[in-house]
Design goal:
This protein is an all-alpha fold and 291 residues long. It has eleven helices and no strands. The protein is 75% helix and 0% strand.
Length: 291
């Protein structure tokens, strides 16, 4: 009976070891690629085709067409104002506003690029300062070295059902969750870049300006996640870990959970969109109510 049980445990342990090795070889470096973004996110061939090269192509053409539609809508609303109680917007102010909006709208992708660039510089600066003080590169790919130095199930006497095995399993599942969270963030950033001309266009009318407010808050919060994650990574690397210290191992697990909840922390501070799939769809539907 004992030999059968040991055989089952050994088989399960070997399966998990293969899984852990695969995660160690792929997940950590992939996290660095999708969590720390720069302006290259806007320069993929297919995205550049969608964005277009000038105001008469692709999305900007649609946005400029809608701009004309907004002007026509305002003109009709102004003509009908004599037959309604509501007070119309000052036409002179509207003309000045629509010109400014048109300029910013046609420069929307450039503005998004600069916001991403500023965020990337701040994130790199934070991690560089941390690297100078701690003497180690602040990145996800270096975390595997820390994890393997304090948690190991390579010995024959160790299994996934030991304390180290359980911690290794929890951390590996946590990083699998992180790869999905940051993948959703990466995609949503591209989506919000594509929405930028229409969001800026919505500032031209008082009835649609709330869409712009929701867009800019969500876009900034998605970028701010990178800064917050950099700070958490610095704290993780600043902790003294030891294979014989269970507290340091639990602190590592807690740090992984903190990274998993970084979106919630950012939302509590400045608001924005959730990276949970169901909540993201709900909030995107909510944004359309302002149109």
């Amino acid at each position: 009976m004992n030999s059968t049980t040991n055989s089952i445990i050994s088989t399960i342990t070997q399966i998990f070891k293969s899984l852990f090795t695969s995660i160690d070889d792929n997940i950590y470096s992939a996290l660095d690629n999708i969590s720390f973004i720069d302006t290259s996110i806007m320069h993929s061939p297919y995205l550049e085709k969608i964005l277009g090269t000038n105001s008469s192509t692709s999305i900007l053409l649609i946005a400029n067409s809608l701009l004309i539609g907004f002007v026509i809508y305002f003109a009709i609303k102004l003509l009908l104002s004599n037959y309604s109680i509501g007070r119309p917007q000052n036409p002179y102010k509207f003309v000045i506003k629509i010109i400014i909006v048109g300029l910013f709208m046609n420069s929307s992708f450039f503005l998004c690029e600069q916001l991403i660039n500023i965020n990337s510089i701040l994130s790199s600066t934070i991690r560089s300062i941390g690297s100078q003080f701690l003497g180690v590169d602040i990145c996800f790919s270096k975390l595997i070295e820390i994890l393997n130095s304090i948690v190991s199930i390579e010995e024959e006497t160790q299994s996934v059902f030991s304390i180290d095995g359980i911690i290794k399993t929890i951390v590996s599942v946590g990083f699998l969750n992180l790869i999905f969270i940051f993948s959703v963030r990466y995609i949503l950033i591209k989506v919000f870049i594509l929405l930028s001309p229409f969001a800026i266009l919505c500032t031209s009318l008082d009835s649609t300006i709330n869409f712009f407010k929701s867009w800019i808050k969500s876009f900034i919060s998605l970028l701010f996640i990178e800064l917050f994650s950099s700070l958490i990574l610095i704290v993780m690397f600043s902790i003294q870990y030891s294979p014989s210290d269970i507290v340091s191992k639990l602190l590592f697990v807690g740090s992984v959970f903190a990274l998993m909840k970084v979106n919630s922390y950012v939302r509590d501070i400045i608001g924005g969109i959730s990276l949970d799939i169901q909540n993201s769809m709900y909030m995107l539907r909510g944004m359309t109510k302002f149109i």
